[in-house]
Amino acid sequence: MGKRWGYWSLWGAIWGMSLGLRFWGLGRFDEFVFDEVYFAKFAHNYLQNIPFFDGHPPLGKYLIALGIYIAGGGFHAWGYRWMNALVGSAIPLLTGLLAYELSRHRWLALVAGYLVATDGLLLVESRYALINVHLMALGLLGQWLVLRRQVWAGVFLGASAAVKWNGLAYWFGGLLAAMKLRWRWVPLVLGLFLLPLATYLLTWWPHLRQNPERDLLALHRDMLSAHTRIGSGPDVHPYCSAWWSWPLMLRPLSYYYQSHDGWVTHVQAMGNPVLWWLVLAAVLFSLPQLRRRDCPWTLQFALGNYLLQWLPWALIRRCVFLYHYLPALVFGCVVLAWGLVTLWQRGYQRVTGALLALPAIALAFWLPVYLGLPLTPTAWRWRFWLPSWI
C-alpha cells in the first residue's frame, strides 16, 4: 500500500508541477504573444459572430473560445489562455497513460510523463492561446483508446486533425497500431475511418454557418493555397527552421522580448536542451532495434510514431518552425524512458539517476526564459549557448 501511495504521489507531483508552471503569472503579458494575434482573435470572432478566414481547421479556436466564454466572455489574456494551460498540463499524464498501455510497466509510464513535464517548449506553448497543445492532447488520447481497442478512439483522432492537418499523423499511427493489434474489420472501418471523417466534417458546421461565403470544398482549396503561398527561408520569417535541425534544437523562436531599466524580459519558445539531446541520443541508439524480430512493442510504437510525426515534414516546402517537432518529441520521451528503465534494470542505477535529474535541472536553469522572468543581461546571455538561439 505504501509503495502504491508513493507512486501516485509522484504522479501528483508531476501534474502539480505542470499545472503550477502553466498557470503561474498566466495573464502577466496582457498583450498578444506570437500567433495569439490570430488564434485568440479568431476564437473571439466565433463568440462575436464575426466572419473571418483561417488557414487551419477550426477546433483549436473553438476550445480557446470555450475558455473565453467560461471565464466570463471578457477578451483578456487570462481568459483566452487558461484553457491551453489546463490542456497542456494534461499532456504528461496522457503520455504516461499511453506508455503504460504499451508496456504495462508503471515506472516506465512515470518516467515518460516526467520527461514530457520537463520540456520548455511544451510549457511555453501551453501558456499562450496557441493550438498545438490541443492537437497533441486529442491525438494522444485517441491513440491511447486505440491501444485499449475502443472504437470511439476515432472521435479524438478526427478531432486532432480538426485542430491542424498534421494531426493526421496520430490517425495513421493509430491505424497501424490497430492493424498490429488485429482489430476486426467492422470496428476498424467504423472506428478509424468513418468516425474520424465524421468528426472532422462535423467540426466545420459552426464555422460554415458563420462564414457562408465559401462551401467546405472551396474553403479547403483556399486553405491549401494559403499554405503553399507562404514560402520558406529567413526572408519569409526570421524563425523558419529546417525539419532536420529540430532534434538538435538549432533555431528556437522568440515570442516576447523587452529590455527596460537594465533588465531583459524574454519568452523564448525553445525546448529543454538537455532533454532534447538525450531524446535524440536515445532515438539514434534504439533505431537499429526496429530491424529485430524481438523488438519490444513499446519501442516499435514509440519509434514508429516519432518518425511518423517528424519525417513527413521533409516534404513540406512552406516555412516551418521548431514547435512542429513537439508531437515527435513526446514519442521520443517514451523511447528515452524505455532506455532509462532498461539501464536501471541492468544495474546502472547511479547513471540512470543522474540522467533522470539532468532534465529537471535544465528546466530550472532555463525557466526564466520560458516564463518571461526578468533577467540581467549577463544572466540572460548565459542561457543562450548557440548563436542561432538569439
Topology of this protein?
Elements: H1 2-23, H2 36-48, H3 59-70, H4 77-103, H5 106-117, H6 120-126, H7 132-147, H8 153-161, H9 168-180, H10 185-203, H11 205-210, H12 216-228, E1 253-260, E2 263-269, H13 273-286, H14 297-310, H15 326-345, H16 349-371, H17 377-382
Explain what this protein looks like in three dimensions.
The protein is mainly alpha-helical and 390 residues long. It has one domain. The protein has 17 helices and two strands. Strand 1 and strand 2 (263-269) form a beta hairpin. The N and C termini lie far apart (50 Å).
Provide a compact summary of the structure.
This protein is mostly helical and 390 residues long.
Strand content: under 5%
Q: Give the helix/strand class.
A: mainly alpha
Percent in helix: 55-70%
- Write down the domain tally: 1
Q: Give the strand order, joined by hyphens, for the main sheet.
A: 1-2
Integer-rounded radius of gyration: 21 Å
Termini separation: 50 Å
Count of helix runs: 17
Count of DSSP E strands? 2
Q: Write down the overall geometry.
A: globular
* Averaged pLDDT: 95
Order of helices and strands: HHHHHHHHHHHHEEHHHHH
Largest β sheet strand count, sense and barrel closure? 2 strands, antiparallel
